[in-house]
Model the fold of this input.
Amino acid sequence: MELFKEMKKMGHELVMFGQDEATGMKAIIAVHSTVLGPALGGTRFWNYPSEEAALVDALKLSRAMTMKNAAAHLGFGGGKAVIMAESHALKSREFFHAYGRFVDSLKGKYFSAADVGITSEDLSLVKEVTPFVSSTVEISGSSSPTTAKGLHLAMKACCKEKYGSDSLAGKTVAMMGLGSVGYATAELLHKDGVKLKAFDLNAKAVEQAVKELGATAVPDQPGIIASECDIFAPCALGGVLNLDNIKTLKCAIVCGAANNPLVSPEVGDALDKMGILYGPDFIVNAGGVANSTTEAAMGEKYDIKVVEEKISRIYQTTLDVFKLAKEKGISTYRAADDYAWAQVEAGKKGK
Done:
């Protein structure tokens, strides 16, 4: 890879590489944009097949965080860190202190939050050596509950756009993924009188949803995607919808917590042509980063009421993206991108 050429192409400001021989810590921090404020994004702890794969992930994810933070009007730019690790056995206080010193070297240009493989407990260890950390146990903790609250509001906005009313009562939602965010969302939907269908690789999670939420279990992934429902909610891994399997969808709306659930922009365009309303992922799942940015900005003065006010904006932002799509005659997938970059451009002009 020609790194500088790729940075220019994607618009990155900074890419840093760090390692610590004593602990085996190897990490990359990619700062995509600080136009709207310090960069914030999760740290991903993953066994990458190669150093280049780790770099590509950091570049893509940091750019996506710029879009998410901008669209949610959070006053932060986008960044991401990846730690290349073969095993969770590497985790230790010394390991995360080494990583914390790496984060600290940027002097506040990047704030680290949680992501795949990194917990709030891990970040609390990082915070022992640097203040530029969010989502710690002692302050805001897991962002799953706030992600679920934001997704719940986004689903209401989707219903408002599709049906003329934002009531979810009596609707059927097919949940693909019942992890911490998916299950919390399912609980909120159950309280609204939603009929739930559920699939997860963790059979116990599905059994719990059947028992506690009256959900109907679906045996496999193709089945949940093709399930008859009002809203299909992908809440697990990304890349689950492609140009082939969307032909099996029997829903009016796609809206879930998963990042990048569509394998390409063309899938978003195809959903639009099919008359299926797509709630763009980084618009509808921004509740988590609303939580993280609040801790980053307020520190010990963190206030959940401030988080909830930020989350409440997701409803209107989702509707604004739908409005922009209609005005431009484009899919909601592409309208979300345009909406986000418009906020960044406005920030550049304001500086």
About this structure: Residues 3-61+78-126 form a domain with the Rossmann fold fold (CATH 3.40.50.10860).
